[in-house]
Amino acid sequence: MSARKKSQRKPPPRKTPRRKAAAPATPPRIARVAKGKKPQYFSDPAIDKLLWMTITLMEELSVTRDRLDAVERLLDRKRVLSRQSIERYVPDAKTAADRAARRAAYVDRVLRALQAELEETTGSDAPLTAEEVVSIVDS
Amino acid sequence: MQGFKHHAMLPETTHDEQSRQDFVGALRGHLSSRVMPGAYKVYASKVEPAFKAKHGRAPADQEEVRKVMTQDPFYQFWSAMQRRSQEMLWESVIDPTERQLPDLIDKARKIGRKARGKLRLDPKLEIPRYHRAADIHLQPGGYHTDFTADDIAAGAVYDKGINLYMGGGLGAENDLTGNTLLAYVREKHPDFKPKRILDIGCAIGNSTLVWARAFPKAEVHGIDVGAPVLRYAHARAETLGVKVDFSQQNAERTDFAEGSFDLVLSHITLHETSRSALPRILGECRRLLRKGGMMLHLEIPRGRTAMEKFMHNWEAYNNNETFSRFMTDIDLVAEAVKGGYSKDEVKTADFVPQLDVAQMNYTEYFAWKILEGVRR
Question: Cβ–Cβ of A48/B318 closer than 8 Å?
Fold first, then answer.
């Protein structure tokens, strides 16, 4: 808090001190949604999205079960703790915060269907219709 | 991934990243072996009989099959899940690639400095409209988008992605298509020893390397329109100890000299082009061949019955393989003739490989189509 106030009062130094191998401010991002109109599979597009989410939930549950399995096997192999102690575990504040961040990323992943629709309907580079793509390859 | 060979340019995976890829593999294996065959059963037992009752005949072509099958609830679920599995496939590979992208780019730069093969990029090359119109195979950004300077992401994503796509069936170095076409040459032309080879639409050079290894004395070139896949192809080839010269060029008109190649190849590339590009590409292949030189294109099967044709074309309608839909009826020999071949210089052949049922995404019968041309 105090450091932030100080920097507000004082203008930043003109010359920034040299830092070794500064990482780029924003790491490169790769697109997650392919260009091209997504087909509608069911009479109600909501079903398309629900299936999307359901399969993604399947994936994440599978990942979690794998991870849990790895942890339990490692703990068991090293005789660190019993399964009962896992049942009784209560997270501390730091752990709870870490879990919250991971949970937010998880929700984002599962609900990407909605973001994809947003990109398609409001993005600057709106996808061509299927017919438009056909006419291009057929020309 | 079963049997997939790790190399320096492939992103590492954390526990969860690997687990996601494993899930995608399991899901796609299940869809191919347990769900997709159901679409054929539903068609035979329900959809086709209903059509016959209404029209007094079976569906005449894949378009008529499409009209009724896309209304069937079982097909709808398979199709929607197949689509989602394709999207998830890329997502599961993009996550670890993005996380390690700056390091992978550095690695490619370092490898590039000591490389034996050349890499020639052309930032002025116009990416063909048929390539830009939609992201082929749903790979976000396609094969041509640079997300950052000296980007290799599209290549790294493609390398792991196509292996997941075939459930590992593309082989340890994604070399199945190269090996298939090589097997065809070994069988039909055992004495053929090309000295200069060109692979068009080579992407990450996974098939190109097969030819460089099979003919170690040959000078081997790979061309593609996408810069990020070529940077990756170059670093990948070097890291695997194979010398190939890669250049960013459109196969419709290259800068190679006329008659300068003994062998010009493509591996499942033609169906990603367009109606006007196809004969131009085939004509360019002929121009590049010396007298007696050979052109070989490996293409995906198109199916035998109306229902098989419909299923084979799932990717055309659902996986941004837009031009693929026309390939069912396109006569490759006629296209080659349009491009400048005489009729007696070209022919097509079916070539049947051995594949596991879990790797057949749309059918239980699978024969590659090969277009062969010899410049006389």
Answer: no
CB contact under 8 A, A137 and B19: no
Q: What is the pLDDT of residues A51-72, one digit of tens each?
A: 999 999 999 999 999 999 998 8
Is the ipTM here above 0.95?
no
**Interface residue of B87, B317, B319 to substitute, partner A, most A CBs within 10 Å:** B87
Quick one: tokens of B367?
A: 């024969």
Which of A70, A127, A137 lies closest to B130 in CB terms? Answer: A137
Are residues B133 and A137, on separate chains, in Cβ contact within 8 Å?
Answer: yes
More reliable by pLDDT, B301 or B104: B104
Please check whether residue B1 is in contact with residue B164, taking contact to mean a CB–CB distance below 8 angstroms. Answer: yes
DSSP-derived secondary structure for chain A: -HHHHHHHHSPPPSSPPP-TTPPPSS------S-SSPPPP-SSSHHHHHHHHHHHHHHHHHHHHHHHHHHHHHHHHHHT---HHHHHT----HHHHHHHHHHHHHHHHHHTHHHHHHHHHHH-SSPPPPHHHHHHHHT-
Distance, CA of B30 to CA of A23 (rounded, Å)? 42
To which residue do tokens 């034996």 refer? Answer: B116
Q: Mutating which of A26, A29, A33, A35 best tests the B interface, going by the most B Cβ atoms within 10 A?
A: A35
CA B342 to CA B365: how far, in whole Å?
Answer: 32
Contact state of A52 with B84 under an 8 Å Cβ cutoff: yes
- A49 interfaces chain B, CB cutoff of 8 Å: no
Q: Rounded distance, CA B234 to CA B244, Å? A: 7
- The pLDDT of residue B269 is 96
pLDDT at B172 over 80: yes
Single pTM value for the model: 0.85
List the Cα angle B364/B324/B187 in 5-degree steps: 60
Please work out, in degrees rounded to the nearest 5, the angle formed at the alpha carbon of residue A94 by the alpha carbons of A93 and A98: 115
The share of chain B scoring above pLDDT 70, in percent, equals 96
Separation in Å, CA of A11 to nearest CA in chain B: 33
Question: Would you say B199 and B230 are in contact if contact means Cβ atoms under 8 Å apart?
Answer: no
Beta bridge partners, B219, equal B196
Sheet holding B219-224, edge to edge: B119-120, B245-248, B219-224, B196-200, B261-267, B289-299, B368-374, B346-351
Cβ <8 Å between A136 and B274: yes
* Gap from A91 CA to chain B (nearest CA, Å): 21
Least confident of B81-85, B97-101, B168-172, B290-294: B168-172
Indicate yes or no: CB of A133 within 8 angstroms of CB of B97: no
